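Two entries, shown back to back:
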Amino acid sequence: MMQRIITPDNSVTFHNLHFDEAYHSKSGAKEEAVKKFAEPCQIAGFAKKGNIRILDICFGLGYNSAAAIDAALAVNSHCKIEVVGLEIDEEILYEILNMPDSFACYPLIKETIKNNYNYTKDNLHITLILGDAVQTIKQIKGEFDAVLLDPFSPKKCPQLWTKEFFDDIYSRMKPNSRLATYSCARVVRDNLKNAGFQIFDGPKLWRRGPSTIAVKK
């Protein structure tokens, strides 16, 4: 179901044969996690305040969460960090155990997989919820500072880009929280706006169009 790819920044991703799409940009999987997700969500800024809750939709190989955790701990080693990841495909989660440690905290992501999708130690708590994100998001309690939205494309996975799904995300975000996603498709931005978000351009990173940052005011 998956084909392994080494991207130009020497990080590993996979091509999903069912969706016929890669899990990350082929220009650099690690770079994408940092530049399109952790930095646009201003993880470091939230971490300086002492605590942050992160919702990672379509957890995949865990790169986006890893980049966010690294960014938070780099500015505040005592920051309380909670990550909730949603993922439907156990196969990609099992691949995490075979990945090189491209991020400082990646061994902790591996421990999460080994420990039945839960990790808690000191100031870090990671929970993964397996299933269709359209349904599992309804199980989540509390509000988040940052949302990492990384499904396959709107063409291949339209159910995770609808206004209804964005409504569920919006209702679980704090005021002034941020959502980052790689897509700038018109339907994605229109649905985000209709759900109540303010929309801004994110970085391009080897693409014609920018990524998208959505802010809940």
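entry 2 starts here
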Amino acid sequence: MLRCRLVWVVLAGVLAIAAAQTPQPNAETIRLPLPAQAASVALSASANRAAVVCRDGKLRVWDIAEARLLRVIALTNGNIDYTAISSEGRWIFTGDHSGNMVVWDSNTGQAQLQLRSPHYPSTAAFSRDGKWLAIAPMGDPVQVFDVHAGRKLFETRSITGGTAAIAFSRDDSLIVTADADTAVRVYDARTGKLLAENRDFLLEPLAVDFTSDGKQVIAAGADKVLAFIDANSGKLVRRLQKTVEPVAYLEVSPDGAFVATVFMKADNLVKPAPVAVWETSSGLKKQEWLPPTVALGTSWTRDGHLISADATPDSLRIWRIR
């Protein structure tokens, strides 16, 4: 009898561990029907907006909460490499493989800013107030533009290999970049002056964001480690436990209590990898969810819910993870 009871205790423990590692089956989903496969997606959960570039060469803007199509914009060039959306959902950036880059006004469907670069964009990000846009053409310096005025404000110095990710601080006073030379750099967002640099990564960092108070940067990438970096000095503050896969994207929650990470399968980029939520104070992983297909976009809502998008051939699915 005792042996039988011990077997059941062990079995219960194994099942509990397995359940904790199983992707949540009850994540809520909204399905947005599409006439063509989604090729590039940007989410602004705080504004309930999804910008979806489809393989028919059209940009579709959706109200996520109501699953309502707001606007369809015909793109002049196809083969979009990168899409970004501003926090309030008004501005949408698209950049194609030929170096054509456009900022669209989602309210009117008109082009607000048109740019041409010798290289396609590797990443882009709007300031939190939507006034500025930072673009990193592949292998080129980061360039910051005034969206309303349509003029370049500055560009950073050239970095070997270019920049993989960009983020603005909550007050838009700082910009952080994850660079191909394995450094994380913090700049003054108004002048482009380099303020801090961290070189503790052995491999390329691929994702960055600021903590909610702007005092630290969280960076991750090919090293498979989330690193907390002092934004003023560039010094490493702490590292979390090494992850199984590289981190492709990360974003801090509105209240700063959590950071969401999107992993990537290094050996098979078309295979889905988990989306995880970490507690910033303790560094503990609080949640993990495996999307049915590769996650195309992830974002936090104003009230602290995490959503993620993946695609089927005829729809975009929005999942509420947390």
